Amino acid sequence: MTGDRYHLTLTSTGRPVMHGWWASEAVARSQYATWIGSWGGLPDARIQLVDEEDGRSLAVWPAEPTS
């Protein structure tokens, strides 16, 4: 996946359902929003966007509770 820096994952009930890779952060963020609308209704759905170059989590849905 040369050049594909942004990794999007979808899990449901703790199991991986699908993932995608994009070179552009803007495109990956657009896909993130699309996945929430399309797949957010799955049981215990969790969608995460990670910058694989530096390991940062850029977005998580639903938002993780702060304590």
What attributes does this structure have?
single chain; 67 residues; alpha+beta; four-stranded antiparallel beta sheet; 1 helix; 4 strands
Q: How would you describe the overall organization of this protein?
A:
- The chain is α+β, with helices and mostly antiparallel strands.
- The chain has one domain (6-61).
- The protein is 22% helix and 40% strand.
- The chain has one helix at residues 25-39, and strands at residues 6-12, 15-22, 46-51, 56-61.
- A four-stranded antiparallel sheet has the order 2-1-3-4, covered by helices on one side.
- Strand 1 (6-12) and strand 2 form a beta hairpin.
- The mean pLDDT is 93.
Number of DSSP strand runs: 4
Helix content: 10-25%
**Unreliable sequence segments:** none
Helix and strand pattern: EEHEE
Estimate what percentage of residues fall within beta strands. Answer: 35-45%
Strands in their spatial order, largest beta sheet: 2-1-3-4
What does the largest sheet look like? 4 strands, antiparallel
Structural class: alpha+beta
Label the overall shape: globular
Q: Given the structure, what is the number of helices?
A: 1
CA-atom Rg in angstroms: 12 Å
* Number of domains as seen in the coordinates: 1
Task: Describe the SSE topology.
Layout: E1 6-12, E2 15-22, H1 25-39, E3 46-51, E4 56-61
Antiparallel strand pairs: 1-2, 1-3, 3-4
In short:
Helices cover 22% and strands 40% of the residues. It has 67 residues and is an alpha+beta fold. Strands 2-1-3-4 form a four-stranded antiparallel sheet, covered by helices on one side.
